[in-house]
Amino acid sequence: MLAPKKLIKKYLWLCASLILLLNGCVPQRSYEAALILADTAAREAPSRWKSTTPTPSQAGVTYTVAGRTHQGTLYLPAAAPPRAGIVLVPGVVPLGKDDPRLVAFANTLARARFAVLTPELKEFQHLQVRTRHPRVIADALAYLADRPDLVPSDHLGFGAFSFSVGLAVIASLEEDIRAQVQFIFGVGGYYDLETAIRFFTTGYLSESEHDLEPSQYGKLIFAATSLKYLTNPADRAVLKEMINIKIRNPDADITFLAPRLGPQGKAVYSLLNNTDPAQVSPLIQALPQGLRQLIENLSLSNQDLTPIQAQVILVHGKDDPLIPYTESIALANALPPKQAKLYIIEQTLTHVDFKFRSFFTPAFWSHELPDLWRMYRAIYLLLGKRAPTDP
């Protein structure tokens, strides 16, 4: 009997082979897309992609754009020059650009001859989002665009996960880089922040769909982000204590702290503990003005998206517990015709984590194989954004 790791490797390679058979041919890009698909599921574990491509280089970089200084990590292919550049942005996670999942995917893409830059967003380590983040992301692409010695200048784009998909879309609207963004690859993103907030606080999706459990992680991000906008130090202290308790134990009771909150703190607390979808809009209107402005500024539904010139490749899991898949549908519909490609993953993608959950069962044929095909097509499109192969 095969050991579990060996079985998983054989299973992933079989999936890749099946995709190639479905495609009917094995040109280089198809072959690479299949290997990358299997490697993405493997993460840090061994894979055929890792064994057949050299390990990329990885180095910290400091760069300045229009007087703004940033830091990041640059991944470069080891054996040949990059054929494209991508700014890769994680979701709001404490490790930020150093999250193992992002590091693994950055290496995967660098093996495919992308120059991958992961910018540092310091507030992410505190689960906080700022209005300046789209500019930080845009500056990372401006840095790559200013390095024609490193990256083909007409093959640049963004890759983003979760909440950062919206940040990357807003970044692509910045006038100084707008024409240089050829693609946006987004997994699990949002379109309308009020809809996303309604979903992760109440679990409500629509009248025709089953409600899900509210997302405790989404509530943590919102609560942590709100701290900056509370003018009462006592409110900040109490809410921070609530956050710390929930980080240690998501099921912990924090109601005993609620009476210590002032008006602004209570407004945040009331929104995050509300269970009635109809009350979300008025509860948002009761938030501190700065926090309301943040929601308005970062909501894509408030943006004119027509200037975007990039092709947008969207992937979203139907079972996403943090941002509903309908948000990627809404974003795709808001973009100019034929500019967006959308792939809804039925079962094998939970928010930003891609995994297989069955081995040679009926579910493999009915759900996992179709999901693999959708993921393969998204990766195939992304690989097509590279410059042509060397002569």
Automatic annotation (TrEMBL):
Alphabetical list of SUPFAM superfamilies matching this protein: alpha/beta-Hydrolases
InterPro entries listed in its UniProt record: AB_hydrolase_fold
Signal listed as a keyword: yes
Domain of life: Bacteria
Protein keywords: Signal
Signal peptide (residue range): 1-24
Protein name: Alpha/beta hydrolase
Organism: Nitrosococcus halophilus (strain Nc4)
